[in-house]
Amino acid sequence: MNALEEGTAARIDFEKIRRAAASPQGLIPVVLQHAESREVLFVGYANELALAETLATGKAVLWSASRDELWRKGATSGDELELAEVRVNCEQNALLYLVRPVTGGVCHTTGPSGAARPTCFYRRLISTGELEFVEGSSPSG
What's the average model confidence in pLDDT over 23-44? Predict the structure, then answer.
């Protein structure tokens, strides 16, 4: 079991933005939200190339800050996200991709059924400072 992804100890990574900012790519955050349910699926990054590919293909394409490469969501997992709309925030320094999951899965982690979770936000932070699984998303079910 991967304790970071499947555990209940909070290990919030406050250095992620600093590492992304150190990338040789000019990056902005992208919130990916389900076009119908409006549930937030996950947060990623885009550079100009990722945005251009997203608009050209109609599929969510991001920039992997950790691998420093273009990330076509679903290229290896099959969990593609069809683009409905791209929105830009007021300061034009963040994007919102409204998407529709093609296969139902979104996250690279799997739920109790063994299928990709429908969102990366499957745990909540509780008052004790620990994490609690949202109903139906814990490793044990």
Answer: 94
